[in-house]
Amino acid sequence: MKIKHAWEFEEWISLYTLGILSGDELETFEAHIGGGCGVCREALWQTSQALSLIPRGLPDAPMPGGLLGGILGRIDASEGNMKKRPGFEKAFDLYANPLYEFALTLTGSESRAEQMVEAVFSDTAFEFAEDCDLFNRLMGAAIRIMKPAAERKSPLPRFRKDGHHKSSPVADWSQSAREGSLPRRIGDALEGLSPTERAAVILKDGKGMPDGDVARALGLSRGTLRRDLHTARLRMRGYIAASAENVF
Amino acid sequence: MAIKSRKREINLDITCTKATSLIANFLTGELDSDTSRAFREYLDICPDCVAFLNTYKKTIEAVQSFYSKLSARTMDKTTHESIKERIKSKIPG
Predict the structure, then answer these.
(1) Global ipTM
(2) How far does the CA of residue B64 sit from the closest CA of chain A (Å)?
(3) Which of A128, A94, A134 is CA-nearest to residue B80?
(4) Is the model's pTM score more than 0.90?
(5) Cβ distance B39 to B22 under 8 Å?
């Protein structure tokens, strides 16, 4: 999200630079700057530069001890804060758990999910300032760093030349499947999908997200998403069907 | 063989291959009315495709159930904070 510039913040810039903004105003202003308002950042930089030149324009008289150092120290501190604090911390507190939940489903392992959260936030730690679609981007990053599944592709349905099912009759295990056994099979079946297919299934069928949101998160067109999703479901169904004799 | 000949009477264009490719759009109600009717008519005479459709739907339901079980889990507070601190320490200040 582009941080919306507001004129009242400009009034605070010189006060902030001089270190005399305090309380709620200070907190609000730092959040605004940390949120990435380009206009205020530029104005803050210019004000800082101008203030640093003031001593040169003064008559040749000793400055009160520590004044310039104090000003510059505050400027340094505020610039440091802009670089790292509010954007990252807020983003992490907001999105670490939803991302962990996603990563847990994606990887099937708590430790791998934690590693993924750390890796994703480390990779994107500088990008939090002006992003309206942050969670989608975090999920996209998670998928990109995920290693492809071991080459164990679940089977797609096969058809005869005349277009009919090759394995006939097709077993209908939809009613006989034991509820307890299916989730484990689903976990295994997910591992036979590519990272993108896996994410598509989790976000669409698991999380119930709309097609458009899933497509954006994965960087796919809606048509490609729907094709990949259908293929992924066919593979998963094929995996469960192949093991159905042992399970149901 | 009896099934095959009846399939021809109903709709020459639909086969199991075609029906399988239509399942996703059928389930979301996105087939046009003619195709949807042809799909349903085909299901009336093809038990293999009925079984396939049922198990396709069951797979989607199972994913929902699998996800809802896992999504209740979150990182514990200590892990959350320690990951955050590790990342912050990597960001040049």
Answers:
(1) 0.78
(2) 4
(3) A94
(4) no
(5) yes
